[in-house]
Design brief:
alpha/beta; 2 domains; Rossmann fold; 16 helices; six-stranded parallel sheet
Length: 410
């Protein structure tokens, strides 16, 4: 309690920086984290390198949005991808950046060619960070909440007493390079990895950062997820078979190119199933072509996006997260909160979230293994019921994680 005549303690100023404000996993975790922080103690600000995304509309009212005229439209639809392309083009033209940026561009490109993992976005994250808006204010803590542009921006262009960054993915599998990134991670006081596996992979790339790298759970708002699952639109197509669902952007990472022929094979084996996907992205045209090639237009269904996917998750019979790589998948965590039987690939994060044979089925990723794993779930209602029972009432506690963040503001 404050003594009479004493001034209240000044709030600690924390800045969170992200790449976009789309409704992807990391951004939804940022929203959940901001909702847990005390606005009476912390002055909270958010800045997005790409000024676009539906999550702007979901920010707590006490959070300062530093972007001018924030756009609440999707990052991943055609208009969003066009807007990002324009921002990249403008960044190249601005101050003749294309001349000074070429050496870095080619270093990243050659690395991607070497590892056979071409990713358009990673070619330009540094460029977007360089040309993002600058702020004169000094913060008690600046947090890069995701890899890429946000990490480069906070490392180089934000003034703060302490700096932290998050790693949400398998750093090496995602195509990042310690040779290119080490000088930026050097500038952070803490590196928070969202799963133990993610931490181990990161330290394989940066063993010298062991003392400052910690496991920090992704925040999952259990009560809000359950509440939202009970309202809003869900499946309405009258299908009387088993529904498989995946929530995730239409991207190589999510391995839909393996799921589509897997569904075709399940249908050939006589299983009355449909596979639904909630998400959008640059791979949509390619995936629709693959759906036609496999003759599953009526049973592999791209639903697009929705602000509330939870009635769909609650209404599916099997949730699938058969990805090539993950960090600690939010959509998978949300399906577990809603006690859905799961099939997931053995990759970073998934193996920590799912216990094979107890809360779901884990597979080594291939079309054949997706088919076999799904068939195990499809043909055994008892197994699905067991997983649902084991997941009921799952407990979530983020106290220790928050204390690690608070300690950086002391």
């Amino acid at each position: 309690m404050e003594k009479q005549g004493e001034s209240p303690a000044a709030k600690k100023k924390i800045l969170f920086v992200t790449n976009t404000m789309g409704r992807a996993g990391a951004e939804k975790c940022l929203q959940a984290l901001l909702e847990l922080l005390d606005p009476e103690k912390y002055d909270l600000s958010v800045y997005s390198i790409i000024n676009r995304g539906e999550l702007y509309a979901d920010m707590p009212e006490y959070v300062h949005i530093l972007n001018k005229n924030p756009c609440t439209r999707s990052v991943l639809d055609r208009a969003g991808l066009a807007a990002i392309s324009r921002q990249i083009l403008w960044s190249l033209i601005k101050k003749c950046s294309f001349i000074t940026y070429l050496p870095y561009f080619f270093r990243v490109l050659f690395h991607q060619i070497k590892i056979r993992r071409l990713d358009f976005s990673k070619l330009f994250w540094m460029l977007l960070a360089r040309n993002a808006r600058r702020f004169d204010e000094e913060y008690d803590l600046a947090v890069a909440f995701i890899e890429g542009a946000a990490t480069y921006y906070v490392a180089n262009y934000v003034k703060a007493r302490k700096k932290a960054t998050y790693v949400h993915i398998d750093y090496l599998a995602a195509g990042y390079s310690p040779k290119l990134d080490r000088k930026y991670y050097d500038k952070f006081d803490r590196v928070f990895c969202v799963s133990d596996t993610v931490r181990k992979v990161f330290l394989k790339a940066y063993p010298e950062y062991d003392a400052k790298t910690f496991f920090f759970h992704n925040m999952v708002p259990r009560e809000r997820i359950i509440r939202l699952s009970r309202g809003g639109k869900g499946f309405d197509d009258g299908f009387d078979g088993l529904r498989i669902l995946t929530v995730g952007r239409l991207h190589y990472q999510k391995a839909y190119d393996l799921a589509i022929p897997a569904l075709a094979e399940l249908r050939r084996r006589g299983h009355n199933v449909r596979w639904y996907v909630i998400g959008e992205g640059a791979e949509e045209d390619n995936l629709r072509a693959l759906i036609r090639q496999n003759g599953v237009e009526d049973s592999f269904i791209l639903l697009g996006t929705t602000p509330n996917p939870y009635p769909y998750i609650a209404g599916c019979d099997i949730y699938s997260q058969a990805s090539r790589f993950e960090g600690w998948c939010i959509a998978l965590a949300e399906s577990l909160v809603l006690a859905r039987p799961v099939l997931a690939s053995r990759c970073a994060g998934n193996e920590e979230q799912v216990t094979d044979g107890e809360t779901g089925v884990l597979i080594d990723l291939s079309t054949e293994n997706i088919v076999e794993g799904m068939e195990k779930l499809i043909t055994s209602p008892e197994l699905r019921t067991k997983f649902t029972h084991n997941l009921s009432g799952i407990a979530l506690d983020f106290k220790k994680d928050l204390e690690m963040l608070y300690a950086l503001t002391d």
